[in-house]
Amino acid sequence: MSELFPFPPQPPSVTWPTREWIIGDLGPSVKDGEISSALDELFDHGVNPPVGKGISLATVIIHRGKLVLERYGTQPDTAFGAGGPVDRDTTLISWSMAKSITQTVLAILLDEMGIDADSPVAIPEWSGDQRSKITWRHLLEMRDGLDFVEEYVVDESGQSKSDVLEMLFGSGSSDVAQYARSRPLKHEPGSVWSYSSGSTNILCGLIKHLLGTTSLENFLNQRIFTPLGMLSATAKFDEAGTFIGSSYVYATARDFARFGYLYLRGGECESGQLLLRDWVDAARRQHAVDIESGHGYGQHWWIWKSLAGAMSAQGYEGQRTIVVPQYDLVVVHLGKWVAETQPFLDVQLDRVVGAFAP
Asked: Under the phi-then-psi rule, with left for phi > 0, alpha for psi from -120 to 50, and beta for the rest, what region is 135?
């Protein structure tokens, strides 16, 4: 196991971004031409991208505690409403970046309640079969072994065997945790890594149980969003009252950067240690690799291009919050890049990250 790069401390001369980001410049050591070239590739085609490219809506870069660059695009018109220019106040969907926020919630609760991450989760429907061996860590690492198909495509007839689509938009949408819990076991728990939005929503159902009468919406606002200054952030819940933590947080690009900044500082924010550093390290400790993308996986966080300790919250349509302790860097990208275009997107974002290398 490779050694994790230490988290850079908050610079004494820089205030925490709880209220506003301090605006800075790229500085002489940064390859600004490389950044401009990469972002031009992502933004300059507007809402009519050529084949192989998508639409970029927002990029925010935080370096050494300061906002050194941001660029915004234009939302296209969709069946859900008119588009228009995006700016610093526009809230955009997280998609699976919400999974990393779910990890934050669970880390706080397991720590405060003294629950061992390696203990089996208590789900009554699983008590009579091998699913009863599934632990909190299995779900966090997506090694639970449940049969869950994570695909976002339908065939020519409009049909799909995708569990994630059925859970979010079909029969499971009113109770996402129940749908995910109902899936049968395919592998021995802990033996196989398989990326699954179902794993996250099972955790969200368990979080609701741990909180009891406490509202998770209030918990998110009081314990995470407000301390970080993420005042634009809004989480979405299903009809059963479960946070759809696999997919649905809306926030501005600047506020997603605030979330990434919490992890860049090892779980610390202006008010103190919001979550234990051990949980941040667990999130960025690689135990699996996605062969197609080259990204590693930790606990509800990706490892950016398997760069040791460099974390990335990643979502459908090219949503990215990249956290690179080596360079004291957070890069946020929000947009609409379908799966086949995301390799090109990640190449350009990797150019941006590399421009800050010492």
From this structure: beta
